[in-house]
Amino acid sequence: MNTPREGIKRIRRRLQALMELHSNNPAFDMIVAINRVVSGWSNYHLIANNWSSVANALGKELYWMVMHWLGRKHKCSIAKVIDSYVVNKIHVYGKTRQRIRAKSGNKPVFLRYFSDYKYRTPLEVANKIRDAFEQHGWHSTDDDKVEKETLGRLVQGNSLRDKLEALLGW
């Protein structure tokens, strides 16, 4: 099983749309939003046989997309963006490598790359799900349903998916 080409095109479009949507927001918020998208997409596709090559290619594209977004945002060259936002040889997310960092006050956030997520066999994923099910059980009570309905009404129309749908007409 390989990652479909259409899926790769969709994640590229989604990241580009996300950067357009957050064009006026701080870099910290942008990186947090990108990390959520990268995490979700990677966790879904990391069982694909071509995960390593897909993750490396998308990671390089993402790096330069963010660098150019920061350059446009601050109206400066890539060299100045690198001086301001890139940290070399930092150990985060289980790897030591160059990272893009943004801060909000004293709290730093680092850009996650697709390659931060390791390939897993379908059996490993199934065992992880089975173990979680045995430990916690997946059930809901009536209180959970009321709480979910209330939260659903509060955030309706404010999710990233809703904004992307409005922006791109998905």
TrEMBL record:
Residues 8-75 form the Group II intron maturase-specific domain. Pfam families: GIIM (PF08388). InterPro entries: Mat_intron_G2 (IPR013597). This is Group II intron maturase-specific domain-containing protein. The lineage of its organism: Bacteria, Bacillati, Bacillota, Bacilli, Bacillales.
